[in-house]
Amino acid sequence: MDIISFLSTILDVLIPSSCAYCRSPVGGSGIPRFCRQCWSDFAPVKGQICPRCGKPFGSPEALTNSPDHECLTCRKVPPYFDQAFAAGLFEGPLREAIHLYKYRPVRALGKPLATWMAGQVSFDARPELVMPVPLHRKRLKRRGFNQALLLASGITRHFDLPLSYDNLVRTRSTRPQVELSGEERTVNVKGAFNILRPGEIGNKGILLIDDVFTTGATMNECARVLKGAGARSVVALTLARTAE
Question: Which residues are CB-neighbours of 130 under 8 A, at least 6 positions away?
Answer without folding.
Answer: 152, 155, 156, 161, 162, 163, 164, 206, 207, 209
